[in-house]
Amino acid sequence: MTLPINRRRFLEGSAATAAATLGGGAAAIWAPAVHAQALALKPEKGAKLRVLRWSRFVQGDIDAYMANVKKFTEKTGVEVRVDNESWEDVRPKAAVAANTGAGPDIVLSTNDDANLYPEKLLDMTDVAEYLGRKYGGWYPAVHQYLKPDGKRWLGLGLGASGSLLVYRESHVKAAGFDAFPKDTAGFLALHKALKEKGTPGGYALGNATGDSLWTNWLMWSHGAQLVDKNNKVIIDSPETLKALEYAKELYATFVPGTLSWLDPNNNKAFLDGQVSCTNNAISIYYTAKNSQDAKVKELASDINHAAFPIGPIGVPTESHLFFNQMVFKYTKYPQAAKEFLRFMMEEEQFDPWLTASNGYVAHPLAAYEKSAIWTSDPKNTAYRDCVKNMRPAGYAGRLGYASAGAGADFIIPNMVAEAASGSKSPKEAAERAQKRAERYYKV
């Protein structure tokens, strides 16, 4: 059964106590919760760690991360090797490590990858509960991803790369819209107008780990779901057909080529002026602001961000790329690995990293809502609540092997691509998705 998104769960870890400290200035923001106890983790003698993580999309991320790694080594004497790979490469390499019992000690991966091999992962409950008590509690989706049985933490949340709308304000206004539409009818009308003006939008329909998540929004906003709360596959439904008919109309307004787009493609298309609206993390804006190319840098003033509009279902249905941090049981240095992750999540390290990466990863712990990065630039603020508001990728079912496998197999993005492009009818695409999903969600 999916963990409930309610106040009790949200406040787990003394969030109420932490919130009470937030009125006393900058120092009070990070004052530890009264119930937070010190966590004694002593790295093993001679410990060495290897970390496999996804490659940076903003330079500040990796610069600050590696600065924190250096601090950890200087403090503990533990050497840490960090290997950076693309999102698409981290998952298979982590799976090989899990199956062979050899490789990196720690993996920073995506969505519910931890549920692909939970029995291979070190129990992180002590660290997770310590951080939750100290920093206002983990957001509900983090529990659903990493504590699916309600008992054991499979890893720690790192946060999420927000999948929000990135758009050119001047182009939206030129298309006849004073503000970005807040419903799906207006969203479609905007994209039709943008195409007519020669400034189209475009969204990834290839097997993009992060940027294809807009297809979850498309389904959920129309009331469609891959599975119900009992993990029964229900994607072949009238709601899905409505969503896919909408997708066909929307796709007709896209710039050519989106069927093969992976995660870097829409960034390049936007910065090259090929599209004026797409979904992405804050990395497009970050790149524009920090570009050495005057033409690209000038673009930053015209960029803004918005949440995806609300569809017929009548409620927000946000889908973002969740990042987890896992430790394999085979590690020779479990105490060192736990201490490394604890250290990296503490305010002294985490907030500077959050700031240096310009909020590219939205925080998973409630206390970090008060980080200055979210208000230092008003264009950052839209990304602040991504983890707080998101639905897990396996919504509305229980996360586990099935949800992780179905997500890794890109069933929803492939279905939308087939129907939108016309290679299959909406009904054919939904039926194929149903059969594919049922292979994972076996009765």
From TrEMBL:
Annotated keywords: Signal, Transport
Subcellular localization, as worded in the UniProt entry: Periplasm
Main location per the UniProt record: periplasm
Keyword Signal (UniProt): yes
Cellular-component GO terms for this entry: periplasmic space
InterPro entries: Bact_solute-bd_prot1, SBP, TAT_signal
Basic and acidic residues bias spans: 425-443
Pfam families associated with the record: SBP_bac_8
Claim: Signal is one of the keywords in the record: yes
Annotated segments matching region Disordered: 420-443
Similarity annotation: Belongs to the bacterial solute-binding protein 1 family.
Protein name according to UniProt: ABC transporter substrate-binding protein
Species in which this protein is naturally found: Aquincola agrisoli
